Amino acid sequence: MKSLPILAPVVACLLIVLTYLLLQGAALDAARHERTLDAIRTVILYNAALQRDVLRARAGLLRSYDPLVRSIENLNEATQTLPAARDIASGEARADIERRIAEVIAAVCDEETLVEGFKSDNALLQNSLNYFNYMSGRLTSEGDGLRAVEIGALMIAMSRFISDPQPEAARPVTASLDRLARPFVDAVSASDVRSLVSHGRLIVTRLPAVDDLVSRLQAAPTSERARALQDLYLDVHGRAAARAARFQTLLYVAALVLVGYVAYLFARLRHNARILRERLEFEGFIASISTQFINLPRDRIRAGISKGLARLVEHAGLDGAQIFVSRTYDADLSGGYFYRRPSGRSTARLPNDLIELASRWTLADHERQGCIDALSHGNLPAGHYIRLAVRDTGSGMDQATLERIFEPFFTTKPAGHGTGLGLSTVHGIVAAHRGAVDVRSQLGQGTTFEIYFPQIEPASAQADEGEGEATEVPVEYGNGETILVVDDDTPLMQLAEEMLAALGYEPVGFDRSPAALNAFRADPGRFDLVLTDEVMPDMTGVELSGKLHEIRSDLPLVLMTGYGRTLRSPQLTAAGISEVINKPLLSASVAQCLARHLHSG
Fold first, then answer.
1. pLDDT score of 151 more than 50
2. Global pTM?
3. How far apart (Å, rounded) are the C-alpha atoms in residues 281 and 289?
4. Residue 47's closest CA among 244, 289, 170, 223?
5. Positive or negative, the Cα torsion across 379, 381, 382, 383?
């Protein structure tokens, strides 16, 4: 048994190593790899198709620009898949791939802008070219004299300009257009000539711009950048595949080591089984003593305790142990029971057994106690209670530690020596029995725990047994009131929202207290009640309640906590907290709490 604390970390380390190797040696996603390569190839393919269709459109061979639009859409769709390529790498390699992807996406965006400009300019150009060719041919064939000669000269100059749209070739065209623009006597042909001149001038201005767009589209670096991305991706993918293969080999070796170690542990556990059986026998022995105490008549309880403890000490082998269990009526532990740790012993398992025995005897005794006014952890209504007290003379606790002892996962022990759930579990059990805990401690003087349970009279206890199951407290539902819910544990916050919605309220949840405070400041009148957790990283529930109370003093504030706090605390009172309820939340308890504050009037 003593070797288990050593073996457990070793097994845990092996499992961590196996998990790491399993993650690192995982096979690369083949489907994603193919999708990434297909996306890169699509970019290269449709970029070539785009450049081809641009040349066809410039030559007037396309009836519409639909092929250009489809090519751009396919390029954009392919670039949306490209970011998956970075997932195979990390660090500098990932940054390189991301940079290459950004370059490809930028090139596609530039091409899309150029194509939009080309479509509009080329449409005007092709329209003007078609009209110019038609009108110039008709005027030449129908006209005579000087005008026919001038139009023929214009057609020759325009043909040269179209084949080589340079400024030198544009000057003869412009001169011919200027001559034709002069008025002449034939009014019937004048409008046709003016239209011819207008379209000719548009050709002179638009043709160089369209050819410039074509040149820029043909020189776009999209394909080159896509090929560079493909080369980089294949290189990184190959290195990642080789690394995964190495880790898979290490995984097999680690798995063999773990199997051998598990076999060793199995042999050790067989040896420890005998020790465990002895411990179970010992615990059964304790249970039998407790049963005897409960069944003893009232006048024989003290004698039964003495004999039971003597048998317990004899069975446990605690030679020379000094154990005191007594009934007192002093001011410190009135009506309680306590144990005194044997002097000279740093640790002992026996006190836990004594607490169990004493608590069983106390509950069987049903001695009437006084009313409880205020406790350090929790609240109790006025009434009569049974008190179980345990006192030690240890090092004690300071106030900060005392306030957090029942907080889940809080521990003062070093790492690996405690979970911080022991006292939290105790508090939950006591609260489930409608009890409370009072803790008093001073540094250097020890600690006293007092556990209070409601006293049940014999007559009422029998009545409760017969009627308790049939009695149900009616649940009072809400009328759509808005409840602000604040809990840094998102699943618990969502669970509270669902519970409140089922009870007829309108929940508004936040998992960060600053966000909840900002929402409240924006519209303080929106909320009818606030339900906030106490332990939160940015701002505690008490601090948040204080700020909300400053903004709106009439707002009911309910504090949720996994460990109790008294409402009479000046800090809670100053924060305007109306009530403290314990976690986990129960629908009936929450419904009653909200009804008290929202429906009482």
1. yes
2. 0.39
3. 13
4. 223
5. negative
